[in-house]
Amino acid sequence: MAYLAPAEFVSKMIDAGESKLLMSTRDTLIRAYMAGAILALAAAFAVSVTVNTGNPLLGALLFPVGFCMLYLLGFDLLTGVFTLAPLAVFDRRPGATWGGVMRNWGLVFVGNFAGAMTVALFMAIIFTNGFTEAPNAIGQKIGHIGEGRTVGYAAHGAAGMLTLFVRAVMCNWMVSTGVVAAMMSTSVSGKVIAMWMPILVFFYMGFEHSIVNMYLFPSGLMLGGQFTFMDYMIWNEIPTVIGNLVGGLTFVGATLYSTHYKTAPKRKAA
Question: Which CATH class, in words, describes the domain spanning 6-127+136-260?
Answer without folding.
Answer: mainly alpha
